[in-house]
Design goal:
With 645 residues, the protein is α/β, with parallel strands linked by helices. It has 21 helices and 27 strands. The chain has three domains: 363 residues, Alpha-Beta Barrel (TIM Barrel), CATH 3.20.20.70; 141 residues, NAD(P)-binding Rossmann-like Domain (Rossmann fold, 3-Layer(aba) Sandwich); 118 residues, FAD/NAD(P)-binding domain, CATH 3.50.50.60. It has an eight-stranded parallel beta barrel with strand order 3-4-5-8-9-10-11-12, surrounded by seven helices. The protein has a five-stranded parallel sheet with strand order 15-14-13-16-27, with helices on both faces. It has a five-stranded parallel sheet with strand order 18-25-19-20-21. The longest helix is centred in the first third of the chain and has 20 residues.
Length: 645
């Protein structure tokens, strides 16, 4: 399919972009500890430029070292020492005819004190962010004036480094947004009170940048189309703000929404539809004459094209899509939509970042490690030597793909009739359909790479040996954990329920295990039944992102279900399960017409000894066969072991 609108040139001020694809700012924590743009962050952005983005906006970039730290390894424009390395970042991006802005950022009350040396967070007023949970102090008037200068200084540093423009982050409940929103601005000085007072902080930043960088230096403002808070910025307020900002002479508006306090609206998990907030950008576009960038949870090039054709926006923000696949743009332009690894909305990227680690992605095992594991680093010494992979789930597919890129003649065996393994089952619960597209994409990538795929074939050491393979990767997945308790034979596994092998009967359903599989299975079964989830730990969801866990729990409970934490399964008898409180030891009974086990998996290693005898030391375990985990772990395992073989 041809995407004429998406790949037509566009202008932001006098700056021409080669297409309408914008990679908006996303924290990546890949800068050096000093805040400089080192080799890793340069490679990260260069790969996205090579992949077809017309404009890249850097991650949240610090303008204040005292109270403005957003992530541990955050890009910085706080002093002139940053210019040299920033200029190298610019050169790397410009090499692909891609433009680049720096996003000027201060988190305000949305940063914990541990990131700012134990100091109290600051804000427009002393309103606490519920997510951070630390009461900020209100900035003094002279401190606000000082921060204006720091934003302007950041813009000057960016301009001297050769960046094409800057973006002021005035959205998502960060500091500038805290001044704009009545939810957080309770001030009575010149920076509060009236609409003009609340706009004064951003106004002075804009006018300062214009004074020092010149009237033609592009300025984007990332703004909220709505705070999604009762006393926050409404859609009507946003239109008023947009018109005001246009009158100040900015170059474009990047429309997003939400704050930390509004929950999932700020960064959408998988239960938000593609394009769910397009009306926010469309409202702004109707009200102004400067370009609008829309971020709308966009997965597919066709949807982006449709938004442009409808006139809802001028530019398309592809955010997490560029994390899952840095080549989103070039693949779309070539009509290779099926080869794009599309974001599945699992929120793993932000969970990892919130843990203080560099950016990661479930579907992209290279992200954040481009400098070490990029395709340019592959040792392409396969020379047609033959290797077999046993198991066509995520780990096996990724291993086979990486080996093929290295020049090995790779054969992939899968016992089922289709590729995907347990990813096919994970796609069955509500809002998980993007996993089906992931499996389709992996199959297409394997075909393009020349991997020979044998489905419906149960690989034996003898069969694999006949292919002439010198080594074998075992990616046979895992088997459900079945604890030795009375009556366990009367239970069924979540895997068998999702695959249709086991029938769910009766009204009272008990799911044992409150991890991702247990919660999603419970959500899937909840309508029309009473579902109880039993979890030994005091928390559910494992490492799932909090907004995803909250949604799953709400969906279960709104259908009349319940979640019992701190309870250990001790017996299954008739239509009852017995559980024991892990703290008190008290036993209780729960009605159970069907008991479903979702207690994790153990490694599956069929014929391992025979494979080792046949292939000597050249048997490599990957995915759940090596160590049980999630899709993220499987892809990383498959990729990394194949990378270094």
């Amino acid at each position: 399919m041809s995407y004429e609108k998406l790949f037509s040139p566009g202008f932001i001020g006098s700056l021409e972009l080669k297409n309408r694809i914008v990679m908006p700012a996303m924290g990546c924590s890949l800068a050096e500890s000093t805040g400089e743009a080192g080799a890793r962050i340069i490679k990260y952005y260069a790969d996205r430029a090579r992949g077809g983005a017309g404009l890249i906006i850097t991650e949240i970039t610090r303008v204040d070292d005292e109270t403005g730290v957003g992530t541990p390894n955050q890009l910085s424009v706080t002093n002139t020492h940053m210019i040299a390395q920033l200029s190298r970042l610019v050169e790397a991006v410009h090499a692909y005819d891609t433009k680049i802005f720096v996003q000027l950022h201060h988190p305000g009350n949305q940063t914990p004190s541990r990131l700012i040396g134990g100091k109290q967070p600051v804000s427009a007023s002393d309103v606490t962010c519920r997510v951070i949970g630390e009461q900020p102090r209100a900035l003094k008037t002279e401190e606000v004036e000082g921060l204006v200068k720091k934003f302007v200084t950041g813009a000057v540093i960016a301009q001297k480094a050769g960046l094409d423009g800057v973006e002021i982050h005035a959205a998502h409940g960060y500091l500038v947004s805290q001044f704009l929103s009545p939810h957080t601005n309770k001030r009575t000085d010149k920076y509060g009170g009236s609409f003009e007072g609340r706009m004064r902080f951003v106004t002075e930043i804009i006018m300062g940048i214009k004074a020092y960088c010149g009237p033609k230096f592009p300025i984007s403002v990332r703004m909220n189309g709505s705070d999604y808070l009762e006393d926050g910025i409404t859609e009507e307020d946003a239109i008023h703000q947009a018109k005001y900002l246009e009158a100040l002479g900015i170059s474009c508006l990047n429309v997003s929404c939400g704050t930390y306090d509004s929950g999932a609206t700020i960064i959408e998990p998988n239960y938000f539809a593609e394009g769910w907030k397009r009306h926010l950008a469309a409202n702004i576009k109707k009200a102004v004459n400067i370009p609008v960038i829309a971020v709308c949870n966009i997965k597919h090039p066709a949807f982006a094209e449709e938004m442009l054709e409808a006139g809802d926006t001028d530019f398309i923000g592809i955010a997490r899509g560029h994390l899952a696949d840095p080549d989103w743009g070039v693949k779309a332009q070539a009509g290779q939509d099926k080869l794009i690894r599309k974001c599945i909305g699992c929120m793993e990227c932000f969970r990892i970042l919130n843990d203080g680690l560099p950016l990661g992605c479930t579907l992209n095992p290279v992200i954040g490690r481009e400098f070490e594991y990029g395709d340019e680093k592959l040792v392409k010494n396969g020379a047609g030597r033959k290797i077999a992979v046993v198991g066509g789930g995520p780990a096996g597919m990724e291993a086979a793909l990486t080996l093929a890129k290295r020049g090995f003649e790779t054969t992939l065996f899968e016992a089922a009739d289709k590729l995907g393994g347990t990813a096919n089952l994970a796609a069955i619960p509500p809002n998980k359909g993007m996993l089906n597209e992931f499996v389709e994409t992996m199959a297409a990538q394997l075909a393009e790479a020349g991997v020979k795929v044998c489905t419906g074939v149960c690989a034996t050491p003898e069969l694999v040996k006949e292919t002439g393979a010198e080594a074998v990767f075992i990616a046979a997945g895992g088997k459900p954990v079945l604890p030795p308790i009375p009556g366990i034979e009367n239970a069924v596994t979540a895997e068998d329920v999702l695959s249709g092998k086991a029938q769910v009967t009766g009204e009272n359903i008990v799911v044992i295990g409150g991890g991702v599989t247990g919660l999603e299975t419970a959500e899937y079964l909840a309508p029309g039944r009473h579902v109880t989830v039993v979890e030994m730990l005091d928390k559910i969801g494992g490492n799932l992102y909090p907004s995803v866990v909250m949604h799953l729990a709400q969906e279960i409970m709104k259908n009349g279900g319940m979640i019992a934490k701190g309870k250990k399964l001790t017996a299954i008898e008739g239509v009852t399960v017995t559980v024991e409180d892990t703290k008190t030891g008290e036993a209780s009974a729960i009605p159970a017409d069907t008991v479903i086990l979702a207690m994790g998996v153990r490694s599956n290693r069929p014929d391992l000894d025979a494979f080792r005898e046949a292939f000597g030391g050249k048997v490599i375990l990957v995915g759940d066969s090596a160590k049980p985990g999630q899709i993220y772990d499987a892809l990383h395992s498959g990729h990394d072991r194949a990378f270094v073989y």
